[in-house]
Amino acid sequence: MKYVIAIIRPHRLEEVMQELDNSEIYLRTVSEVLGCGRQKGVTEVYRGVKEVGNLLRKVKLEIAVNDAFLEPTIQAIIKGAKEGDIGDGKIFVLNLEECIRIRTSERGGEAIG
Amino acid sequence: MDKINYADLTWVMISTALVMIMTPTLAFFYGGLVRKKNVLSVLMQCMVILCIISIQWILFGYSLAFGPDKGGIIGGLEWLGLRGVGMAPNDTYMNTVPHQLFMAFQMMFAVITPALIIGAFVERIKFTGFILFVILWATLVYDPLAHWVWAKDGWLNSLGALDFAGGTVIHLNAGISALIFVLLLGKRHGIEHPSSPHNLPFSVLGAGFLWFGWFGFNAGSAGAANTVAVSAFINTNTAAAAAGLTWMVMDKLVNRVPTMLGVITGLVAGLVAVTPASGYVTPLSAMAIGALASLLCFLFVSKIKGLLGYDDSLDVFGVHGIGGIVGALATGLFASKAINPAGNDGLLYGNPHQLWVQFLTVIVAIAFSAVMTLVLFKIVDAVIGLRVEIKEEHIGLDLTQQHETGYTLYD
């Protein structure tokens, strides 16, 4: 079992979700986050005072998958999120120790799907 | 100065303030409906229009719209910088209040009209191009049309067109311009995934205060504290109520649920439609006008617009254009001299000619507004540009046009 975390551009979320649906990966958690990478931050101006390097709005996707679904998940995210410029984001893959469905107490791969 | 009636003065001055608040209010109505990365851009556009037109109107706008007539087409430049427009009442326009007060009341109408168009091009307009477009549009579209319909010797006024508070000059005009503008500007990127309004409570607050301000808009257009003003006041409220309910029922019948956005959209459609009729009709007629406008706007916005495929983002044409047409024609049906002897009878009171005049006015306004908007769009788009880069559109207009954000995620 793997835990996939992807940081993407907010306006690509719809495309990424569409690609995930196409690959039959339906379970996901989405949150709004702030961050910056090589794209650096943005400059904001309030009453003439510049605030340099404010963090950019990003969207974080979290998806738990069985091993067989890992590569399709990665490909779907890339397909949906890639623009080819700095700021497209990153995908992190972690080993997932356990997964438990609360309703049934099922564990492991059974519980993920 | 002894001609001034101080009850009239008080009512028109309060009405002027009521119409003024409609523009910041409209900002919240529209602002709540866009995505949160663009909220400030909409508020900014509305507030800047309030500033720009307030200046334009005093410098030359008022003179072009209401100054001494030149062939029924345009006002002269005699009243530039309010020269000769003082505290003595004008014999023609609101002749019991200071001339400058009539000027200020009309100023607020000139302000809100271009602000209405904002709803069409939100989330993709370039701010610098927007400013030039607004100045040109106010001067070359609004001011002449206001002259034609409202100035004593304006050629549409001379035909006998009835437009009590600006259904044609304001709402139809803004609605048609909005439609032409977005046909030329194109859709927002990513619009195939419609986003929900980012702050619907803002929009409800905006709609509520639009209703409130509309009492000044319509009842103030009587120009005096008299029975016609009371009539317009009641008709305004009645049409808004009937229209809000009609949209709610249609939502329930067609989409299975009554919605908050539906109710506020409907009530605005009703307010738009009753505007030209408000000082000429009975409360029951106002009820019919509100319900009819809401029904037709509902059908247009929820059924027909989707088939046409253009991106009038906040339905300026669907509500103000369609509502404006319904209102102008309904005035030709329901107007009654029993309510306002200065008006005329409509078709239902035995005067079919009035409906013909109203129809002609609508056609002229549509043609003029459409052609002029097309020309001005092409000019401004060539000189400055009217659309932001695709990247800026994705990041949002707040950060790219103003370097501000409406909301923080933390703190």
Distance between the termini of chain B: 58 Å
SSE string of chain B? HHEEHHHHHHHHHHHH
Biggest chain pair interface = A-B, 13 and 12 residues
**Run of helices and strands of chain A:** EHEEEEHEH
Mind telling me the CATH class of chain A?
Answer: Alpha Beta
Number of helices, where a helix is a run of at least 4 consecutive DSSP H or I residues of chain B: 14
What is the CATH domain class of chain B?
Mainly Alpha
Q: Roughly how much helix do the residues of chain B carry, as a percent range?
A: 55-70%
Based on secondary structure, the structural category of chain B is mainly alpha
Percent of residues of chain A in helical segments? 25-40%
Q: Provide the low-confidence segments of chain A as ranges.
A: none
Can you count the beta strands of chain A?
6
Describe the structure.
Chain A has a single domain, classed as Alpha-Beta Plaits. Chain A has 113 residues and is an alpha+beta fold. In chain A, strand 3 and strand 4 form a beta hairpin. In chain A, the strands form two sheets. In chain A, strands 2-5-1-6 form a four-stranded antiparallel beta sheet. A two-stranded antiparallel ribbon of chain A has the order 3-4. In chain A, 26% of the residues lie in helices and 37% in strands. Chain A has three helices and six strands. In chain A, helix 1 packs antiparallel against helix 2. The mean pLDDT of chain B is 95. Chain B is mainly α and 411 residues long. Chain B contains 14 helices and two strands; from the N terminus they run ααββαααααααααααα. Chain B has a two-stranded antiparallel ribbon with strand order 1-2. Chain B has one domain: Ammonium transporter fold, CATH 1.10.3430. The N and C termini of chain B lie far apart (58 Å). The radius of gyration of chain B is 20 Å and the shape is globular. The interface between A and B is medium-sized, with 13 and 12 residues.
